[in-house]
Amino acid sequence: MTQSGTAAPAATAPPMRLPSTLRVGLSRARLETLLFFRERTAVVFTFAFPIILLVIFGSIFDGVFEGTGISFSQVYAAGLIGAGVMSASFQNLGVSIAVERDEGTLKRLAGTPMPPVAYFIGKIGSVIVVAVLEVAILLVISLTLFGLRLPSDPVDWFTFVWVFLLGVTGSSLLGIAMSSVPRSSKSAAAIVTLPFVVLQFASGVYIPATQLPDWLIGFASVFPLKWMCQGFRSVFLGDEMAILELTGSYELARVALVLSAWVVGGLLLCLMTFTWKNRRDG
Protein backbone atom coordinates (compact mmCIF):
# COMPACT_ATOMS: atom_id res chain seq x y z
CA MET A 1 0.00 0.00 0.00
CA THR A 2 1.21 3.57 -0.74
CA GLN A 3 0.78 6.53 1.64
CA SER A 4 -2.38 7.60 -0.21
CA GLY A 5 -3.90 4.18 0.44
CA THR A 6 -3.89 3.05 -3.22
CA ALA A 7 -2.29 -0.19 -4.41
CA ALA A 8 1.00 0.02 -6.29
CA PRO A 9 0.64 -0.82 -10.00
CA ALA A 10 1.68 -4.36 -10.90
CA ALA A 11 4.90 -4.75 -12.82
CA THR A 12 4.32 -5.28 -16.52
CA ALA A 13 5.73 -8.58 -17.81
CA PRO A 14 8.08 -8.18 -20.78
CA PRO A 15 6.57 -9.39 -24.08
CA MET A 16 7.47 -12.97 -24.92
CA ARG A 17 9.80 -13.23 -27.92
CA LEU A 18 8.90 -15.86 -30.47
CA PRO A 19 11.72 -18.08 -31.74
CA SER A 20 13.20 -17.18 -35.11
CA THR A 21 12.09 -18.95 -38.28
CA LEU A 22 15.51 -20.59 -38.57
CA ARG A 23 15.34 -21.92 -35.02
CA VAL A 24 11.85 -23.30 -35.60
CA GLY A 25 13.02 -24.82 -38.89
CA LEU A 26 15.97 -26.56 -37.24
CA SER A 27 13.70 -27.92 -34.53
CA ARG A 28 11.35 -29.11 -37.23
CA ALA A 29 14.29 -30.78 -39.02
CA ARG A 30 15.08 -32.76 -35.89
CA LEU A 31 11.44 -33.80 -35.57
CA GLU A 32 11.20 -34.75 -39.25
CA THR A 33 14.34 -36.87 -38.97
CA LEU A 34 12.98 -38.72 -35.92
CA LEU A 35 9.64 -39.29 -37.65
CA PHE A 36 11.39 -40.61 -40.77
CA PHE A 37 13.38 -43.21 -38.86
CA ARG A 38 10.24 -44.36 -37.04
CA GLU A 39 8.65 -45.25 -40.38
CA ARG A 40 10.42 -48.53 -41.02
CA THR A 41 8.97 -49.02 -44.48
CA ALA A 42 10.20 -45.62 -45.66
CA VAL A 43 13.63 -46.20 -44.12
CA VAL A 44 14.07 -49.60 -45.73
CA PHE A 45 12.86 -48.44 -49.13
CA THR A 46 14.93 -45.23 -49.18
CA PHE A 47 18.17 -46.86 -48.07
CA ALA A 48 17.80 -50.35 -49.50
CA PHE A 49 16.93 -49.53 -53.12
CA PRO A 50 20.29 -47.94 -54.17
CA ILE A 51 22.27 -50.35 -52.00
CA ILE A 52 20.65 -53.47 -53.48
CA LEU A 53 21.15 -52.19 -57.02
CA LEU A 54 24.79 -51.36 -56.28
CA VAL A 55 25.46 -54.87 -54.97
CA ILE A 56 23.60 -56.53 -57.88
CA PHE A 57 25.13 -54.50 -60.72
CA GLY A 58 28.54 -54.35 -59.08
CA SER A 59 28.62 -58.13 -58.66
CA ILE A 60 27.33 -59.00 -62.13
CA PHE A 61 29.47 -56.58 -64.14
CA ASP A 62 32.94 -56.98 -62.63
CA GLY A 63 35.08 -56.34 -65.72
CA VAL A 64 37.66 -53.58 -66.15
CA PHE A 65 37.74 -50.80 -68.73
CA GLU A 66 40.71 -51.52 -70.96
CA GLY A 67 43.81 -49.49 -70.17
CA THR A 68 42.33 -47.73 -67.14
CA GLY A 69 42.26 -50.08 -64.17
CA ILE A 70 38.76 -48.80 -63.41
CA SER A 71 36.15 -51.53 -63.04
CA PHE A 72 32.54 -51.46 -64.20
CA SER A 73 31.46 -51.82 -60.57
CA GLN A 74 33.34 -48.65 -59.62
CA VAL A 75 31.55 -46.74 -62.38
CA TYR A 76 28.22 -48.03 -61.10
CA ALA A 77 29.18 -47.05 -57.55
CA ALA A 78 29.93 -43.45 -58.53
CA GLY A 79 26.64 -43.14 -60.41
CA LEU A 80 24.58 -44.76 -57.69
CA ILE A 81 25.83 -42.21 -55.18
CA GLY A 82 23.94 -39.64 -57.25
CA ALA A 83 20.91 -41.94 -57.38
CA GLY A 84 21.11 -42.38 -53.60
CA VAL A 85 21.05 -38.61 -53.08
CA MET A 86 17.99 -38.29 -55.31
CA SER A 87 16.29 -41.21 -53.58
CA ALA A 88 16.75 -39.51 -50.20
CA SER A 89 15.48 -36.17 -51.51
CA PHE A 90 13.18 -36.28 -54.55
CA GLN A 91 11.58 -39.66 -53.89
CA ASN A 92 11.42 -39.29 -50.12
CA LEU A 93 9.79 -35.84 -50.15
CA GLY A 94 7.56 -36.49 -53.15
CA VAL A 95 5.92 -39.43 -51.38
CA SER A 96 5.94 -38.24 -47.76
CA ILE A 97 4.49 -34.77 -48.42
CA ALA A 98 1.77 -36.22 -50.66
CA VAL A 99 0.80 -38.57 -47.82
CA GLU A 100 0.82 -35.73 -45.26
CA ARG A 101 -1.39 -33.63 -47.52
CA ASP A 102 -3.87 -36.46 -48.07
CA GLU A 103 -4.06 -37.25 -44.35
CA GLY A 104 -4.68 -33.61 -43.44
CA THR A 105 -1.37 -33.09 -41.64
CA LEU A 106 -0.37 -30.15 -43.84
CA LYS A 107 -3.74 -28.47 -43.30
CA ARG A 108 -3.34 -28.74 -39.54
CA LEU A 109 0.23 -27.41 -39.69
CA ALA A 110 -0.96 -24.44 -41.77
CA GLY A 111 -3.26 -23.51 -38.89
CA THR A 112 -0.45 -23.32 -36.35
CA PRO A 113 1.80 -20.29 -35.63
CA MET A 114 4.72 -22.09 -37.31
CA PRO A 115 6.13 -19.99 -40.19
CA PRO A 116 5.57 -21.87 -43.48
CA VAL A 117 9.25 -21.46 -44.37
CA ALA A 118 10.18 -23.38 -41.21
CA TYR A 119 8.31 -26.42 -42.51
CA PHE A 120 10.42 -26.51 -45.66
CA ILE A 121 13.64 -25.87 -43.73
CA GLY A 122 12.73 -28.85 -41.59
CA LYS A 123 12.03 -31.08 -44.59
CA ILE A 124 15.23 -30.20 -46.44
CA GLY A 125 17.29 -30.37 -43.24
CA SER A 126 16.00 -33.88 -42.59
CA VAL A 127 16.72 -34.86 -46.19
CA ILE A 128 20.33 -33.68 -45.88
CA VAL A 129 20.81 -35.91 -42.82
CA VAL A 130 19.30 -38.91 -44.61
CA ALA A 131 21.30 -38.22 -47.79
CA VAL A 132 24.58 -37.99 -45.86
CA LEU A 133 23.88 -41.36 -44.24
CA GLU A 134 22.88 -42.84 -47.63
CA VAL A 135 26.09 -41.64 -49.29
CA ALA A 136 28.20 -42.85 -46.35
CA ILE A 137 26.71 -46.35 -46.57
CA LEU A 138 27.19 -46.49 -50.35
CA LEU A 139 30.79 -45.34 -49.99
CA VAL A 140 31.57 -47.96 -47.35
CA ILE A 141 30.13 -50.72 -49.56
CA SER A 142 31.91 -49.39 -52.64
CA LEU A 143 35.25 -49.13 -50.85
CA THR A 144 34.93 -52.54 -49.21
CA LEU A 145 33.47 -54.67 -52.00
CA PHE A 146 34.37 -52.90 -55.24
CA GLY A 147 37.64 -51.11 -54.57
CA LEU A 148 36.38 -47.58 -55.16
CA ARG A 149 39.14 -45.11 -54.33
CA LEU A 150 38.62 -41.98 -52.26
CA PRO A 151 40.08 -38.85 -53.86
CA SER A 152 43.29 -37.45 -52.38
CA ASP A 153 43.05 -33.98 -53.92
CA PRO A 154 41.20 -31.37 -51.79
CA VAL A 155 39.79 -29.91 -55.01
CA ASP A 156 37.96 -33.19 -55.65
CA TRP A 157 36.47 -33.11 -52.16
CA PHE A 158 35.36 -29.52 -52.73
CA THR A 159 33.67 -30.67 -55.94
CA PHE A 160 32.00 -33.50 -54.01
CA VAL A 161 30.60 -31.06 -51.44
CA TRP A 162 29.13 -28.55 -53.89
CA VAL A 163 27.70 -31.25 -56.17
CA PHE A 164 26.10 -32.87 -53.12
CA LEU A 165 24.66 -29.64 -51.70
CA LEU A 166 23.33 -28.29 -54.99
CA GLY A 167 22.06 -31.73 -55.99
CA VAL A 168 20.25 -32.47 -52.76
CA THR A 169 18.68 -29.00 -52.63
CA GLY A 170 17.51 -29.02 -56.25
CA SER A 171 16.21 -32.59 -55.97
CA SER A 172 14.41 -31.76 -52.71
CA LEU A 173 12.63 -28.80 -54.28
CA LEU A 174 11.69 -30.92 -57.26
CA GLY A 175 10.33 -33.56 -54.87
CA ILE A 176 8.26 -30.95 -53.02
CA ALA A 177 6.78 -29.78 -56.33
CA MET A 178 6.19 -33.39 -57.42
CA SER A 179 4.22 -34.06 -54.23
CA SER A 180 1.35 -32.03 -55.67
CA VAL A 181 0.87 -34.48 -58.56
CA PRO A 182 -0.56 -37.58 -56.76
CA ARG A 183 -4.28 -37.34 -56.07
CA SER A 184 -4.08 -39.53 -52.97
CA SER A 185 -1.58 -41.13 -50.63
CA LYS A 186 -2.30 -44.53 -52.19
CA SER A 187 -0.96 -43.48 -55.58
CA ALA A 188 1.93 -41.34 -54.31
CA ALA A 189 4.63 -44.04 -54.24
CA ALA A 190 3.89 -45.28 -57.76
CA ILE A 191 3.60 -41.82 -59.32
CA VAL A 192 6.84 -40.54 -57.77
CA THR A 193 8.91 -43.73 -58.12
CA LEU A 194 8.21 -44.36 -61.82
CA PRO A 195 9.88 -41.17 -63.17
CA PHE A 196 12.76 -41.67 -60.72
CA VAL A 197 13.46 -45.17 -62.07
CA VAL A 198 13.24 -43.92 -65.67
CA LEU A 199 15.64 -41.08 -64.88
CA GLN A 200 18.21 -43.49 -63.47
CA PHE A 201 18.42 -45.39 -66.76
CA ALA A 202 18.30 -42.21 -68.86
CA SER A 203 20.93 -40.40 -66.76
CA GLY A 204 23.77 -42.85 -67.25
CA VAL A 205 23.58 -44.49 -63.83
CA TYR A 206 23.52 -48.01 -65.28
CA ILE A 207 24.26 -47.45 -68.98
CA PRO A 208 27.03 -45.07 -70.17
CA ALA A 209 25.66 -41.96 -71.86
CA THR A 210 27.65 -42.78 -74.99
CA GLN A 211 25.39 -45.83 -75.50
CA LEU A 212 22.09 -44.01 -75.07
CA PRO A 213 19.97 -42.55 -77.91
CA ASP A 214 20.11 -38.79 -78.37
CA TRP A 215 16.46 -38.23 -77.48
CA LEU A 216 16.89 -40.02 -74.14
CA ILE A 217 20.04 -38.04 -73.37
CA GLY A 218 18.18 -34.82 -74.16
CA PHE A 219 15.39 -35.84 -71.79
CA ALA A 220 17.79 -36.69 -68.95
CA SER A 221 19.78 -33.48 -69.45
CA VAL A 222 16.80 -31.46 -68.27
CA PHE A 223 16.88 -33.01 -64.79
CA PRO A 224 19.46 -32.86 -61.99
CA LEU A 225 20.29 -36.58 -61.70
CA LYS A 226 22.43 -36.76 -64.85
CA TRP A 227 24.53 -33.84 -63.69
CA MET A 228 24.91 -35.13 -60.15
CA CYS A 229 26.16 -38.47 -61.45
CA GLN A 230 28.54 -36.70 -63.82
CA GLY A 231 29.92 -34.62 -60.97
CA PHE A 232 30.38 -37.61 -58.67
CA ARG A 233 32.10 -39.60 -61.45
CA SER A 234 34.60 -36.75 -61.80
CA VAL A 235 35.38 -37.05 -58.08
CA PHE A 236 35.78 -40.81 -57.77
CA LEU A 237 36.86 -41.96 -61.24
CA GLY A 238 39.33 -39.29 -62.29
CA ASP A 239 40.10 -37.71 -65.66
CA GLU A 240 40.84 -41.01 -67.39
CA MET A 241 37.19 -42.06 -67.21
CA ALA A 242 35.90 -38.84 -68.78
CA ILE A 243 35.79 -40.91 -71.98
CA LEU A 244 32.43 -42.21 -70.74
CA GLU A 245 30.93 -38.74 -71.03
CA LEU A 246 29.45 -37.52 -74.32
CA THR A 247 31.91 -34.63 -74.68
CA GLY A 248 34.91 -36.49 -73.28
CA SER A 249 34.83 -34.10 -70.33
CA TYR A 250 32.97 -33.90 -67.03
CA GLU A 251 31.91 -30.31 -67.81
CA LEU A 252 31.93 -29.29 -64.16
CA ALA A 253 31.08 -25.68 -64.96
CA ARG A 254 27.95 -26.88 -66.75
CA VAL A 255 27.18 -29.25 -63.86
CA ALA A 256 27.28 -26.31 -61.45
CA LEU A 257 25.14 -24.18 -63.78
CA VAL A 258 22.41 -26.79 -64.29
CA LEU A 259 22.22 -27.78 -60.61
CA SER A 260 22.09 -24.12 -59.57
CA ALA A 261 19.34 -23.55 -62.11
CA TRP A 262 17.39 -26.41 -60.53
CA VAL A 263 17.67 -24.78 -57.12
CA VAL A 264 16.09 -21.62 -58.54
CA GLY A 265 13.68 -23.42 -60.88
CA GLY A 266 12.66 -25.92 -58.20
CA LEU A 267 11.85 -23.06 -55.82
CA LEU A 268 9.68 -21.41 -58.47
CA LEU A 269 7.90 -24.72 -59.13
CA CYS A 270 7.19 -25.10 -55.41
CA LEU A 271 5.77 -21.58 -55.19
CA MET A 272 3.48 -22.25 -58.15
CA THR A 273 2.30 -25.76 -57.25
CA PHE A 274 2.48 -26.33 -53.50
CA THR A 275 -0.77 -26.35 -51.54
CA TRP A 276 -1.45 -27.10 -47.88
CA LYS A 277 -4.85 -28.63 -48.59
CA ASN A 278 -5.96 -31.72 -50.47
CA ARG A 279 -7.89 -31.23 -53.71
CA ARG A 280 -10.97 -32.59 -51.96
CA ASP A 281 -10.85 -29.64 -49.55
CA GLY A 282 -11.21 -27.16 -52.39
From TrEMBL:
Record keywords, A-Z: Antibiotic resistance, Cell membrane, Membrane, Transmembrane, Transmembrane helix, Transport
Main location class: membrane
Subcellular location(s) per record: Cell membrane; Membrane
ABC transmembrane type-2 domain sequence ranges: 41-267
Signal peptide segment: none
Any GO CC annotation of this UniProt entry: ATP-binding cassette (ABC) transporter complex
PROSITE patterns: ABC_TM2
Record membrane topology: Multi-pass membrane protein
Any one GO molecular function term: ABC-type transporter activity
Pfam families xref list: ABC2_membrane (PF01061)
Residues annotated as transmembrane: 42-61, 73-99, 120-145, 157-176, 188-209, 255-276
Family: Belongs to the ABC-2 integral membrane protein family.
Protein name per its UniProtKB record: Transport permease protein
